[in-house]
Amino acid sequence: MNVRIYVPRDTSANACGADEVAAAIDEQAQARGIAIELVRNGSRGMCWLEPLVEVETERGRIGFGPLTVEAVAGLFDAGFPNTDSHALCLGPVEDIDWLKQQQRVCFSRNGIIDPISLDDFEAHGGWQGARRALAMTPQDIVSAVTESGLRGRGGAAFPCGIKWQTVHDQPAAQKFIVCNADEGDSGTFSDRMILEGDPYRLIEGMLIAGIACGATQAYVYLRSEYPLARRVLSEAILRARTAGWLGADVAGSGRAFDIDLRIGAGAYICGEETSLLESLEGKRGQVRFKPPLPAIKGLFGQPTVINNLITLASVPDVLVNGAQWYRDLGYGRSRGTLPIQLTGNIRRGGLVELGFGVSLRELLYDYGGGSASGRPIRAVQVGGPLGAYLPESQFDTVIDYEAFAAIDAMLGHGGIVVFDDTVDMAEQARFAMEFCAIESCGKCTPCRIGSRRGVEVIDRLRQGVDAQANRVLLDSLCDTMQHGSLCALGGLTPLPVKSALRHFSEDFHSTKVQL
Amino acid sequence: MKPAAKSSPAGNPLDADTRSRIEQIIQPMSGLPGALLPILHAIQDAFGHVPAASVPLIANALNLSRAEVHGVISFYHDFRSTPPGRHVLKLCRAEACQAMGARALEAQLVSRLGIGFHETTADGSITLEPVYCLGNCACAPTAMLDDKVHGRLTLQRLDALIDGCGKAS
Questions:
Q1: Which residues, numbered 52 to 81 in chain A, qualify as contacts with chain B under a Cβ-Cβ cut-off of 8 Å?
Q2: Half-sphere exposure at residue A155, Cβ-oriented, CA atoms within 13 angstroms
Q3: pLDDT one-digit tens code per residue, A94-130
């Protein structure tokens, strides 16, 4: 029998050479007359071990990593694939503590299955949630999601069930489901990993949303920076349609539901839900005034559920295991699990899915193993480019929406970017303003102009020009942006700036002038 | 918002063949709800940029004004009105990459290539673009050369990528 070998086809794994490693393994196996079956799985999320190659054995899947093309021949010399004595051998992958201690719900299949194999998907619990949904009334589905306590994973943390209920209650003939896969926050890649590693999970979640809310047409709005995710999802949509899970008669139920994949064009602001809808309509991605809410008047003026990808990907398990089961995971008013992404200057970076309630410190040191550089961790930015910078004194904060709000920070989409002690926090604050200036949609003045002025004021502060006056000016500018902007881009850009000022004020002192 | 494109709104007139290719792209997509972005992507995929002279054709097919089409092209960072170099190198400038030395990579690129972001080398080999996150944040710093993402970049590996583009130092 052929030995089954898994090499991830995932952007991060490929960025570290997985395609080349797969080709080298194939070549070596052929040259040595070893019969193998090469499967391109998704990633387990242990990014520091990528490319992580796995061999299926009676003892489970044995991991090797991080593998390089150069190491492949030597690995075969040492008896690969029937060896576990090589220096790069990690033993059974499922026994690696980093993975074993997680609570994987959304990521239960990632790295395990062949992402586009419908057989694999079904053999690992796929479509169970959709089958349940097809046997339930729409109201019962919405109620289950409401009772689960699931909140939007894009960053705003709005209760998903309330959004669905609103759309469910609208009498419109045409409603839409929109998946926000415009994952633009630096330090996040969980959407991408689902798309590349378990795309049918998203399709299933969207189908359930469609059944619950009475929508027959759905869109995935995917950022253009993810070409591999685009290829995998396109293929998955085609296969799901061929298999009858999308189309005019979903799984013989007589109900119609279909998904169209649309690609963004490099605008960060299109991750904001109303900009995204404008973009889907073929317009400039400019933020809309609210109200009306998208749930009442959304895409093409119709009631629209617009959810983050992880929110939708969480739904199948809510239906399969029950609202109470999901609710029992978590902490405070943050229920369920959050896929956390450990990134930047971190030794063991990757995807950690856990129930809410774990502390930042456990994530950074127990999972992350400290900084990649070996220097002290000085600051972490949580929640993307609009998230606050936290100093070491706040590392005991637990992953919980309310706990973060209480320290003027936010969880956002669950991205944690780690910086060591070489970071210049005034430079980071300047970048926050610069990024806002580059990505502002231009509709409201506090964001469009305020961000440009913000860069200039921080430049003057760093040069020590009128430090006292410019510090007052910067505070005032931040207040204006925070309270006067139309959406979260202008409204939250002050968060990284003010937190840098508050916790790392020494970095803003010029060598000549003290504040 | 990105700065306005420099080319004139009318651009160079299209030859008959190009015009026909553009019309063949637009025609089957013009009935899609929200067709403009898919059409612009398809044209850029085919030509490497969105020729200014295609704007009236798109406007006509979608019953939009030319100004509306131009407004959409100029809003999105991805769409370009002039052809790029033979290779497009996108360097991630976002925080996770910054934490792993992206600023040094940026300085090296600018100094070695002698161009800034959104510019193309004189020999037409490389267009340099900034990008804000490629989703490879646990294996930073990251760049994308054409469609391939490269992680755990060092100054040496970045140099090798540029060498591979046929650009002499």
A1: none
A2: 26
A3: 999 999 999 999 999 999 999 999 999 999 999 999 9
Report the relative pairing of strands A60-64 and A350-355 from DSSP bridges.
unpaired
Coil/strand/helix, residue A111: coil
Q: Which tokens is A199 given?
A: 């795309």
DSSP A170-193: ---S--EEEEEE---STT--HHHH
The radius of gyration computed from the CA coordinates of chain B, to the nearest angstrom, equals 18
- CA atoms within 13 A of residue A310's CA, in its CB half-sphere: 33
SS3 B87: strand
DSSP-derived pairing of the beta strands B126-131 and B87-92? parallel
Specify whether B70 is located in the same domain as B93: no
| ipTM of the complex model | 0.96
Which residues, in sequence order, are bridge partners of residue A55?
Answer: A5, A62
Contact residues on chain B for A266, CB-CB shorter than 8 A = 76-78, 131
pLDDT digits (tens, 9 = 90+) for B15-31: 899 999 999 999 999 99
Domains and CATH numbers, chain A: 3-99 (3.40.30.10), 118-328 (3.40.50.11540), 330-420 (3.10.20.600), 425-508 (1.20.1440.230)
pTM for this entry = 0.96
Residues of A in contact with B35 (CB under 8 A): 282
Cα within 13 Å of Cα(A143), Cβ side: 5
Length of chain B: 169
CB contact under 8 A, A50 and B79: no
Q: Which residue has 């029992």 as its token pair?
A: A328
